[in-house]
Amino acid sequence: MERRKFITVVGTAALAAPVLGSLTSVAANGNAFEGHKFPELGYAYNALEPYIDAQTMELHYSKHHKSYYNNFMTAAEGTDLLKTPMEQIFAGISKHSATIRNNGGGYFNHSLFWENMTPTKKDIPAGLKNAIEKDLGSVDAFKESFGKAAKTQFGSGWAWLSVDKSGKLFVSSTPNQDNPLMDVVDKKGTPLLCLDVWEHAYYLKYQNKRADYVDNFWNIVNWKVVNDRFAAAHS
């Protein structure tokens, strides 16, 4: 995926997210690696309401995500990991500590998550839509499969739409902060879309109704970003 800044949405000064640096690269794509940086949120904490509330967004981004980043940077201090893109780290994650695996995954996964959401609803671009229909049957079938992966993930984890080495799309879920780039998962590929199903991502608003949170996710998916990731994976 090419580096990009998150879509900027004007919010109130009280709710606007702080500027904390640019998103780490998801794939080098020929560009020099610039180090691990905590990403800008790019939209106000209340921008995704009513689907995700402002309090959840603020706590999730500024507390949970920032803690993963800080813990990863502390664990990586004094090692070559500070100069290594995350996708390369994940490719050999089985060789690293649980601290690197959990916090590196949490740092990276959330960076993808914020970017693949938007308050501006748009249609799925034709190229991605055609691929979904070809590999997953239909858009509705894909949403059902993805929703099932998110709703049935036991405990904490993530749901994913990814593309494998052959260029085929697949849906999967991972526990904790694992992702499809890691060498420890069953289904490996390049992530295109992710949904956080840890309780801290939805419990203030939805309590135990994870299914409602998952169903509402489709109202805020940034299909342009997902399509851009898909195009980059095929470049």
Q: What descriptors fit this protein?
A:
minor pseudopilin epsh fold, mainly alpha, disordered N terminus, 3-stranded antiparallel sheet, 235 residues
Q: Can you describe this structure in just a few lines?
A:
The protein has helices spanning 54-76, 86-91, 98-115, 126-136, 139-152, 203-206, 210-217, 223-233, and strands at 157-163, 169-175, 190-196.
Care to describe what's here?
This protein has helices at residues 54-76, 86-91, 98-115, 126-136, 139-152, 203-206, 210-217, 223-233; strands spanning 157-163, 169-175, 190-196. It has a three-stranded antiparallel beta sheet, with helices on both faces. A hairpin with a 5-residue loop joins strand 1 (157-163) and strand 2 (169-175). The protein is built from eight helices and three strands, in the order αααααβββααα. Mean pLDDT is 89; it is low at 1-30. The chain is globular, with a radius of gyration of 17 Å. It is mainly alpha-helical. Helices cover 40% and strands 9% of the residues. It has a domain at 126-233: Iron/manganese superoxide dismutase, C-terminal domain (minor pseudopilin epsh fold), CATH 3.55.40.20.
